[in-house]
Write a structure and sequence with these properties.
The complex is a heterodimer.
Chain A lengths: L2 H8 L10 E4 L6 E2 L19 H5 L8 E4 L2 E11 L11 E8 L4 E7 L8 E11 L4 E9 L1
Parallel strand pairs in A: 6-8
Antiparallel strand pairs in A: 1-2, 1-3, 4-5, 4-7, 5-6, 7-8
Chain B lengths: L3 E8 L10 H16 L8 E5 L3 H4 L5 H8 L6 E5 L5 H14 L5 E8 L6 H9 L14 H16 L3 H15 L13 H5 L4 H4 L2 E3 L2 E2 L9 E9 L11 E10 L14 H14 L8 E4 L4 H11 L7 H6 L16 H5 L6 H13 L15 E8 L4 E9 L1
Parallel strand pairs in B: 2-3, 2-4, 9-10
Antiparallel strand pairs in B: 1-7, 1-8, 4-7, 5-6, 8-11, 10-11
Helix pairs in contact in B: 1-3, 4-14
Classes of the chains: A mainly beta, B alpha/beta.
Chain lengths: 144, 395
């Protein structure tokens, strides 16, 4: 076995999480997307989630809760964009705003043949932009 | 606080000025304004430049210092103000507070942008960079995309049609062809835009349901004002137009986070604050400049300010009430759609047009017929997330 294979076989490979998350305030339960540093409802602070949290954390601080943005949602409005920014190698791009059952609204890319306001959709992670070095993941909205 | 007036105005032509340097474009309108006011050498205390993003459009920073130097205005104080497409009005607001507080007596305000050195794709991307960096921009969201989604929701609620929006395009172009500085100098024909066999080709979709004729052009250009304390206005050769009120307000960065997608609360609040400061009501406004980067915005802004009931602005447009000879002339210079939209310059050029109209110096074909005394400009930053409203009046 080559050293490269040995390294690969013994590396703790972490599955990459491509999900998109909202954040829920631990004090009052309000959900925010995208993430914020102060709760719009009760004003509670959010501190960094990594190790520096130990530095910032005050006694009794509760971490904010990650709420995955996926599953059933409802189409609010949409557009087919014909005039794209640089970086998109396609003729058109369908974009939409949806609302989830918990009241959170989000913008994402739409993959539906005949969109209609109010129709039921499903949100799931997908590639939203391709760069030479990597793919960027975000929200895809597809038919329910 | 001291009262503040506008004693000089200047503009460049709007359009493709890519043969020039950015500081030249800015200084060109500044020279016009200084000549108009009769400013003597050393007479400018402060320079304020409204510019959204010279760093990205022109790879240039410190444009305010570059402009001071090209005009030999040293040692005047100088700053640049950036507030997206409302940078121009924010620059006027800073100039107002600078004079009102007593920090300066005479301020040169210039708003301008040079966007056409980049390709259309690149310029679209630079403007899109003002959308949310995580929840909007990476998806390919652009300002036209947000306007397209907004327009679809508005049409569904109020029954507005593309055919009706095309009448706004005809009005915008009809005013712009009488404005020698405007970017578009062609008359728009309603049938050609909507029902002719060529319509899908000459008027293609940009962000459905918005078509090409309903979206402003990408422009280079600048406009300038000379502001002064009213107590020193007799130094200048033009009688002052007084800034009676300025208000601004913000809304959520992400459009999807608004409780009601069709309410532009920052527009309403900015207008209320400006009118309260001016001690005027919405019925006192004789003429308005509304930020129609997308034609739907001329309707929605007019409704948010309170000129018309929600969903009813289009009826007033179709009755001709917003034409130069109408009850409430709106965007007499062609608006952003007709005159053009160099993002950082638009707010200043809106006030330039109000002053021109209140002085009764506009071209006869677009000079308002009524004896206008009070004008309002609404300058719209982002997609309504940072709005500035200015009320000016004859002394």
């Amino acid at each position: 076995m080559s050293s490269a294979q040995l390294w690969r076989n013994n590396s703790p490979v972490q599955p990459i999480d491509h999900s998109v998350y909202a954040s829920q305030c631990p004090e009052c339960g309000a959900i925010h997307y995208p993430w914020v540093l102060l709760c719009k409802q009760c004003g509670a602070r959010r501190y960094p989630e990594d190790d520096t949290e130990l530095f910032w954390r005050k006694k009794g601080y509760k971490s904010w809760i990650k709420v995955p943005l996926e599953g059933p949602c409802r189409l609010v409005t949409w557009t087919k964009l014909w005039n794209l920014s640089i970086g998109f190698d396609q003729q058109t791009l369908d974009l939409a705003i949806v609302e989830f059952d918990n009241g959170v609204k989000a913008t994402g890319q739409l993959f539906v043949d005949r969109p209609k306001a109010g129709m039921n959709l499903v949100a799931r992670p997908g590639v939203i932009r391709r760069y030479p070095t990597h793919d960027e993941w975000g929200l895809h909205f597809v038919s329910a | 606080m001291r009262q503040v007036g506008i004693v000089g105005i200047g503009t460049t032509s709007f359009g493709n000025l890519s043969a020039y340097k950015l500081q030249e474009i800015l200084a060109w309108s500044a020279c016009e304004a200084m000549e108009d006011a009769g400013v003597k050498k050393g007479g400018i205390d402060q320079v304020i430049v409204g510019n959204m993003s010279a760093g990205l459009f022109n790879h240039q920073v410190g444009v305010e210092s570059a402009m001071v130097s090209i005009l030999h205005l040293e040692p005047a104080m100088a700053e640049r103000v950036s507030n997206g497409p409302a940078s121009g009005s924010s620059a006027v607001k800073l100039a107002y507070t600078t004079i009102a507080s007593g920090l300066a007596d005479v301020v040169l305000v210039t708003g301008g942008e040079q966007m056409r050195k980049l390709s259309g794709w690149e310029a679209t991307d630079v403007v899109a960079a003002m959308t949310h960096p995580d929840a909007e921009y990476p998806y390919g969201v652009t300002l036209p995309a947000l306007a397209g989604m907004f327009t679809r929701a508005y049409m569904a609620k109020y029954g507005l049609t593309g055919d009706q929006l095309a009448h706004l395009a005809v009005k915008a172009h009809g005013n712009a062809i009488h404005n020698r500085w405007a970017h578009t100098q062609t008359r728009a024909d309603h049938a050609a835009l909507t029902s002719s066999p060529d319509a899908p080709v000459i008027n293609p979709m940009v962000a459905e349901p918005l078509r090409f004729s309903e979206v402003c052009p990408v422009s280079d250009g600048s406009a300038s004002l000379i502001l002064c304390a009213l107590e020193v206005a007799d130094r200048f050769k033009r009688p002052p137009i007084v800034i009676k009120g300025i208000g601004s307000a913000t809304d959520t960065h992400c459009v999807h986070n608004r409780a009601n997608l069709l309410e532009l609360s920052a527009v309403r609040l900015a207008a209320e604050r400006a009118l309260k400061m001016a001690k005027l009501g919405v019925g006192d406004i004789d003429i308005a400049q509304l930020h129609d980067a997308f034609l739907i915005l001329e309707l929605v802004l007019a409704e948010e300010v309170g000129f018309f009931e929600r969903g009813k602005a289009i009826e007033a447009v179709l009755r001709g009430e917003t034409k130069p000879d109408g009850r409430l002339p709106i965007n007499t210079d062609g608006g952003l759609k007709g005159r053009g939209h160099p993002v950082g310059g638009t707010g200043v050029s809106q006030i330039y047009e109000l002053v021109k109209q209140l002085r009764r110096e506009a071209e006869p074909e677009r000079q308002v017929k009524k004896d206008a005394k009070v004008g309002m400009a609404v300058n719209f930053g982002g997609f309504g997330n940072n709005v500035v409203c200015t009320v000016v009046a004859k002394q």
